[in-house]
Design a protein that fits this description.
Elements (H helix, E strand, L loop, with lengths): L8 H12 L8 E5 L3 H13 L3 E4 L1 E6 L2 E10 L2 E4 L1 H7 L3 H23 L11 E5 L7 H11 L5 E8 L2 H7 L5 E6 L19 H10 L6 E2 L1
Parallel strand pairs: 1-2, 1-6, 2-9, 6-7, 7-8
Antiparallel strand pairs: 3-4, 4-5
Helix pairs in contact: 1-2
Length: about 220
């Protein structure tokens, strides 16, 4: 039984890593985390699994006049759109492309910052554990999972400390396995299940990746 709230992302990551360590993951494991908050969780998971840590840079596509509301997400060349939201709000193709262009630019900036000019990891035939600090709607995780799938891993596991029932159920269609430590109800936001949910900075992401088992690179 997981006690909520988690103290912070490190606490959540240790709890998640402990659970994953009980499973037969094999020896060719890599942990991929979604920046920025997911890296703080992923760093602890990677340490528990004695695996390298890396990142998948994903950007939410916010509704133009309500950016906090997601209408999709992008990861590298992978794009996921929520057509129900787009239809209901009457968002035009031009508005979508404007948001995509802006977020793609930010995605590239972060990828360059985290990559440090090193090549992307070879995921073919590996067990990939894809980590974030939580799942609300799951849009960004879907984009990340589909991007990772395009690199032909042997197995893809989506793992989060906490998530909504709807999002965790959705992830089962995107991965070989989905691990959600806690699925509390009602679920309004990821941050409500953490005592300390402060924003993680780019500098902290780079530092955590530097401390990991391998140099920081980015799947982008």
């Amino acid at each position: 039984m997981v006690e909520l709230p988690f103290r912070d992302r490190a606490h959540a990551g240790r709890s998640l890593g402990t659970e994953l360590a009980t499973r037969e993951l094999g020896t060719n494991v890599i942990v991929l985390a979604l920046p920025r908050g997911g890296v703080a969780v992923g760093a602890e998971v990677a340490e528990k699994l004695n695996a390298p840590l890396d990142v998948v840079v994903v950007r939410k596509l916010g509704v133009p006049w309500q950016p906090e509301l997601a209408m999709g997400a992008i990861a590298g060349g992978t794009r996921v759109l929520d057509y129900q939201v787009i239809r209901e709000l009457g968002i035009t193709d031009e508005e979508i492309e404007a948001v995509v262009a802006r977020e793609a630019q930010e995605m590239e900036r972060r990828a360059a910052l985290y990559r440090s000019d090193l090549p992307a990891p070879n995921l073919r035939g590996r067990t990939v554990v894809l980590v974030d600090d939580g799942l609300a709607t799951g849009s960004t995780m879907v984009a990340a999972a589909r991007r990772v799938r395009s690199f032909h891993p042997q197995k893809l596991i989506i793992a989060v400390p906490v998530g909504s029932a709807q999002a965790c159920s959705r992830m089962k269609k995107e991965a070989d396995e989905c691990v959600c430590l806690a699925v509390p109800e009602p679920f309004f936001a990821v941050g409500e299940w953490y005592t300390d949910f402060r924003q993680v900075t780019d500098a902290e992401v780079r530092q955590m990746l530097k401390r990991s088992h391998s140099p920081a690179v980015s799947v982008s």
